[in-house]
Q: What sequence folds into this?
């Protein structure tokens, strides 16, 4: 089934043709990096027309740029969206998509553990404008219903949620939000639009950190906002141009290059992750594997219904007796790199204890024994053997 998702005529057309007019740039196969800040006009009338159609023309690269435009068209099509904006990080995608849909005193309902900088936006920045946020367990639609207030203007989702991968029922949440005129925003970085198309479930705005799978090589930051023309125009005319954090032409070019191989990389990551998980199951230190497509996952049925793939991010809970070895185990890894982020070619690991004050670590708490793993493009045996040798060294 994933093969059809990752290889079909429509996808090939989007990735190889859409938005690319080779005659405009000497019939070069690879689009140029149009490295310019501004664009000239031959007549006053042309300039006048451009000033009144800023959203649709090239005036200044903070707004629109031809290299970025090619990327925008492809990303919008992947999400079945009318339009798209590309910004210079995933965090910026959160900022730019949330801000236009709140006014002073508004209220947001958010899943309880959104990406850390989204949480910072809700907890530290928006309260300056009396915008408050209620965090809920998003696995139950009743919690959304209970949390909505008369001033609620946004429901903020992240499905699956990073680290523990809780899932929200996108169809149910979007139906509820529509009935109350609330804008729904989802962080879809985990799945990418290849494995989950939130707009098809009625969600209003789908964002992603393009730094992850779209870039795919851990060498560029980017963010994507996909929605209706009306919403994208609203964002363009306010936060996008005011904050001036649109994607640069060079970064758009790198993201375009990454996008060409996205299906091939996702296939490899998917296959590797399945094989890696099989190997993990026989590893003595592992108490639990948390992964949306693992049959033990509490929301397995919903995951299978909503998502076409689960990619490379998973979490393991180490058995309590082995928990004191976690730090040494991570220090001894060689193939796995200890680093934040994910979605690149390289496999990564973060132990929860790295984010905890040493005095507060309590191994009775399952979360403190968790390690987030990203499986990249390497052979699963290479990764499993690395883990095994690190376990042995840690026990010495
Ligand atoms: C789920 C999720 N959303 C958003 C972001 C932010 O993306 P960026 O690092 O591109 O700003 C991250 C980054 O790790 C993330 O994991």
A:
């Amino acid at each position: 089934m994933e093969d059809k998702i990752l290889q079909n005529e429509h996808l090939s057309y989007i990735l190889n043709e859409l938005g690319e007019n080779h005659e405009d740039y000497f019939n070069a196969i690879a689009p140029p990096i149009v490295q310019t800040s501004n664009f000239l006009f031959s007549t006053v009338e042309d300039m006048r027309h451009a000033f009144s159609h800023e959203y649709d023309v090239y005036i200044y690269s903070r707004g629109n740029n031809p290299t970025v435009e090619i990327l925008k068209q492809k990303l919008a099509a992947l999400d079945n969206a009318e339009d798209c904006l590309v910004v210079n990080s995933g965090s910026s995608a959160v900022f730019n998509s949330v801000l236009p849909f709140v006014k002073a005193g508004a209220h947001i309902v958010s899943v309880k553990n959104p990406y850390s900088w989204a949480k910072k936006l809700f907890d530290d920045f928006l309260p300056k404008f009396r915008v408050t946020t209620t965090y809920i367990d998003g696995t139950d639609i009743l919690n959304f219903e209970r949390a909505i207030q008369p001033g609620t203007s946004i429901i903020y989702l992240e499905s699956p949620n990073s680290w523990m991968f809780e899932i929200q029922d996108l169809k149910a949440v979007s139906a509820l939000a529509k009935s109350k005129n609330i804008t729904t925003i989802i962080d879809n970085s985990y799945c990418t639009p290849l494995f989950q198309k939130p707009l098809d479930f009625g969600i209003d705005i789908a964002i992603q950190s393009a730094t992850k799978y779209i870039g795919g090589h851990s060498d560029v930051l980017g963010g994507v906002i996909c929605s209706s023309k009306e919403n994208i125009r609203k964002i363009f005319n306010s936060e996008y141009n005011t904050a001036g954090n649109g994607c640069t032409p060079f970064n758009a070019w790198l993201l375009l290059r990454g996008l060409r191989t996205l299906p091939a990389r996702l296939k490899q990551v998917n296959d590797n992750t399945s094989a890696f998980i099989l190997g993990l199951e026989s590893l003595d230190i592992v108490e639990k594997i948390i992964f949306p497509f693992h049959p033990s996952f509490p929301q397995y049925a919903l995951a299978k219904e909503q998502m076409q793939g689960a990619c490379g991010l998973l979490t393991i809970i180490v058995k309590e007796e082995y928990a004191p070895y976690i730090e040494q185990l991570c220090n001894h890894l060689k193939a796995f790199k200890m680093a934040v982020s994910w979605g690149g070619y390289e496999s990564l690991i973060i132990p929860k204890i790295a984010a905890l004050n040493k005095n507060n670590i309590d191994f009775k708490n399952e979360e403190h024994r968790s390690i987030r793993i990203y499986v990249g493009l390497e052979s699963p045996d290479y990764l499993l053997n690395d883990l095994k040798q690190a376990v042995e060294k840690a026990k010495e």
User: Anything to note?
Assistant: The domain at 262-395 is CATH 3.90.1150.10 (Aspartate Aminotransferase, domain 1). Residues 89-91, 115, 158, 162, 187, 189, 209, 211, 221, 223, 341 surround pyridoxal-5'-phosphate (CB under 6 Å).
